[in-house]
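Annex B. Sample input.
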Amino acid sequence: MNFRPLHDRVVVKRLEGQEKTKGGIIIPDNAKEKPQEGEIIAVGPGGRDETGKITPLDVKAGDKVLFGKWSGTEVKIDGQDLLIMKESDIMGVIA
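Annex B, continued. Sample output.
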């Protein structure tokens, strides 16, 4: 990918949503909710504090994360649908 996020931004690829419910009912594409889980593809160098020093991010490429329902900006890069969001929009890393 030829894209590098700036400052405290990260690039996230949404993980695919469930195709079936636990009871076995198949969910059609138009009824699926957008998943709130994703994998980090790229991270910026970090934010700057009051003195101008760069503070590194707590997440790294490859981490699986949980983020808010309306977080980030949807973009298409190299034919992939991705999200660009600030690190503060990420709620946590899935172990």
